[in-house]
Specification:
The protein has 319 residues and is an alpha+beta fold. The protein has three domains: 70 residues, Roll (Structural Genomics Hypothetical 15.5 Kd Protein In mrcA-pckA Intergenic Region, Chain A); 72 residues, Pseudouridine synthase; 144 residues, 2-Layer Sandwich (Pseudouridine synthase), CATH 3.30.2350. The chain is built from seven helices and 14 strands. β9 and β10 form a beta hairpin. α1 crosses α2 and α6 packs antiparallel against α7. The longest helix is centred in the C-terminal third of the chain and has 17 residues. It is globular, with a radius of gyration of 21 Å. It starts with a strand and ends with a helix.
Length: 319
């Protein structure tokens, strides 16, 4: 069964001199570059009313019209999974995702995901790309996600994310004592050997993370991280890259390290934490319909709060 795709947009000035397929991939991240190239070859994308090749260069200001079709994927099952809803109206839904909940169905996770929960909560999301999801969080990262409930809202928010107009703020506990905040500007791409991992590589996509210190402990630091880009595993990869991996990080941190002379309570908290100490705490965006600025916050979940409390007591014990 096929589904019609009818979309329009304008090439922004910042994409001038880009290849057409590359520009389209940035404007429509819900579709793969290969699929966009296929539509171009089938003359299902018009640029100022003309049919151009994927390698054509754009100048900025061109009107893009997509009239294409896609094969619908196997129907996903709506499941009554509890959602923590922070905000909902006719255009958007903002939720606070718990740690442990997978966002999209995939290998090893065919159901029981956030998408299954969303389809139960709002069945109309089945008609939207990725059930309306604008961005993702890793399975073991908790926090705020925005979901579009209509196609116009989805298109607007995807483009706002591309223009870096959606503010996303995280908090994390990392290993080691950071001296000061800073910025990590390092491209991220697929690991050359371990294809399930990401890595800082020269051929990767641009990625920028700004981190600020909230509090230092004896062997850890509580930080705030603001993303400019949104690459897969970005905070986890970037913090490991500067040798301050996120506590509880299973993939990029290497062997777990316990601080010297740590209290028994702190050791227990570190060993009991079953996921990375990373939480998406703040989300600021312009509403796609009303254009009103909205700000949402999600308190730190219990397990990270307990870890920070144990770090406090360990620090006081030393003094």
């Amino acid at each position: 069964m096929t589904k019609p795709i009818n979309l329009q947009t304008t090439i922004p000035p910042e994409l001038a001199n880009s290849r057409l397929d590359a520009a389209l991939a940035k404007l429509f991240p819900q579709f793969s570059r290969a699929r966009l190239q296929q539509w171009l070859s089938k003359q299902q994308i018009l640029v100022d009313g003309e049919m151009l090749k994927a390698k054509a260069k754009v100048k900025g200001g061109e009107q893009i019209i997509i009239n294409a079709t896609v094969d619908e994927q196997t129907k996903l099952t709506a499941q009554p999974i509890e959602l923590t809803i922070v905000h909902e109206d006719d255009a958007i839904l903002v939720i606070n995702k718990p740690a442990g909940l997978v966002v999209h169905p995939g290998a090893g996770h065919h159901d029981g995901t956030l998408v299954n929960a969303l389809l139960h909560h709002a069945p109309s999301l089945a008609a939207l790309p990725r059930a309306g999801l604008i961005h993702r969080l890793d399975k073991n990262t908790s926090g705020l996600l925005v979901i579009a409930k209509t196609l116009p809202a989805h298109t607007y928010l995807v483009q706002a994310l591309q223009r870096r107009e959606i503010h996303r703020e995280y908090q994390a506990v990392v290993q080691g004592v950071l001296i000061a905040g800073g910025t990590i500007d390092a491209p991220i791409g697929r690991h050359k050997i371990s294809r399930t991992k990401m890595a800082v590589i020269d051929s990767g996509k641009p990625a920028t993370s700004h981190y600020r210190i909230i509090e230092r402990f004896r062997a850890h630091t509580h930080i705030k991280v603001i993303l400019e880009s949104g690459r897969t595993h970005q905070i986890r990869v970037h913090m490991a890259h500067i040798h301050h991996p996120v506590v509880g990080e299973p993939t990029y941190a290497g062997r777990s390290r316990l601080p010297k002379q740590a209290s028994e309570e702190l050791i227990q908290e570190l060993q009991q934490l079953k996921r990375q100490a990373l939480h998406a705490c703040k989300l600021v965006l312009k509403h796609p319909i009303t254009q009103k600025m909205l700000a949402f916050q999600a308190d730190m979940p219990y397990d990270i709060k307990e870890l920070i409390a144990a770090l406090h007591r360990d620090k006081e014990h030393e003094n």
